[in-house]
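Let's sit down with a protein and look at its sequence and fold side by side. Once you have written the record down, we can walk along the chain together.
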Amino acid sequence: MGLLDKAGAASGGEKKEVKKAVAKAVPKAVAKAVPKAVAKEAPKSVAAKPKKAKSPKAAKARPISLADDYELASTMNRRISWLVNFIVNFGVLFAAIFIAASDTGIITTILFATSGAVIIVNIIFIPMKFSRNIGQFVSRTKFVRGDGTNPFFLHGILVNSIGLASLIGIIFIATQFQKLTDENNTNAIILFSLGTIAVIIWFIDRFLRNGSEMGQGLFDLMFKAYLVKYVPSEDEKATGIWARLENMGNFGDQLVKRTEDRQAKKVAQKVSKDSEDSSKSDKE
């Protein structure tokens, strides 16, 4: 019995030591692990700050395409406008150049000054006031934005001056090309570069205009402008010299009508000729 009592006492002692070790280890581990886990899992209650209500901004009108009230200018309208502007802008200038070849007196100086004044008036002042030039008055056309408003005045100046700028650019290229090899050629390089840029811009504008369904060139696309057929309403009727410009549109209308009648006549003759040839071939 003594051996059994000793063995029981030894096993009882080991159990007590194990219980003490577990009792010591578990509370510490639980005490350390549980608060951290609870602290991580517990959501932090943060007071949400009220957001400031933003006032809605008014959307700007951005026209996508041309309004239904307007009709795009035809090819004939564009040709008439170009022809009239060419005669107005360069008619006096060519006369001054022709006279300057034989006479360099006061008459030539007056003609050059008059030519410059006419070009400035037709390219800058008339478009700034009426959004149209003399050629557009005659052809009854006008540049408008998609919603019917007038484009920014700079558009008319750029569109009307692109041809003149390209002509000046060609003169710069022709006169300064041989001077590029000189030693002090800074001015020649500047003028040659400006002339080249002006000519390139003209080619880009022409390329875009020919490839556009709406007939828009470079500056038309930049300012979202369209050349349309335009007849002023009763409220827009002009007086004085501007009324005479409006009346010049009658000449343009007659010219367009004659051209269209001539084309229709040619088409009718071609159709009749084709029908006669087909009837002859059937008889044979």
In short: The longest strand covers residues 141-145. Residues 152-216 form one domain. Strands lie at 141-145, 225-229.
